[in-house]
Design brief:
Order of helices and strands: HHH
Helix content: 55-70%
Distance between the termini: 45 Å
Number of helices: 3
Shape: elongated
Mean pLDDT: 76
Largest sheet: none
Length: 96
Amino acid sequence: MQIPVTVPNRRVGWPRRWPFRAALAVVALALLLAVLGGIGSLPGAVLGGLAIGLIETFWSAYFSVQYKDVAAFSVLIIVLIFMPTGLLGRADVEKV
C-alpha cells in the first residue's frame, strides 16, 4: 500500500488538499488498527486489520460508502469498552 504524502515545495507551489486528507485518513486508520489489535501486538494488528476490512466491506454493501469510517470507529469504541488493551493486548502488571 502506498501512502500519498506531500511536502510543500516553494518551486512547485503548495499541493492540493486531497493528498493531505488521503494521508490523514491512512494514518488515522493505521492508528485505529494498532489500538484495536493491541499496542505492541503484531498478530493483534493483523487480526484488527482483517476485522476492520471485513466490517468496512460489509458496511459498504448495505449502507453508504461515505459512512464506513463511522462503522470502523464504532467497532473500536465497542472493543475498547469490553477489552481496554485491544484484541490481543496484554495488561502490564508491575510487581512492587
